[in-house]
């Protein structure tokens, strides 16, 4: 599997997940922390940005929701 974020002015680095790995809420949050948020900080700086995701179980988990409310503007 490959994960990436996109916007009108660029894309995050591609994140490759090994075959057979199920994305849990914990490794999803690690992936965001290690790959997504450093890019958003560098790319957007103090500018406003919006994080959107679908309803995959790792996205809907309470821990993930709390994590994203702390890290993303207007989540």
TrEMBL record:
It comes from the Eukaryota. InterPro entries: RNaseH_sf. GO terms for molecular function: nucleic acid binding. This is Transposase. It comes from Acrobeloides nanus.
């Amino acid at each position: 599997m490959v994960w990436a974020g996109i916007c009108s002015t660029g894309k995050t680095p591609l994140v490759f997940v090994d075959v057979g790995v199920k994305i849990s809420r914990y490794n999803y949050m690690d992936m965001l922390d290690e790959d997504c948020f450093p890019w958003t900080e560098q790319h957007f700086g103090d500018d406003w940005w919006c994080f959107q995701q679908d309803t995959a179980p790792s996205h809907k988990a309470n821990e993930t929701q709390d994590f994203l409310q702390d890290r993303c503007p207007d989540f």
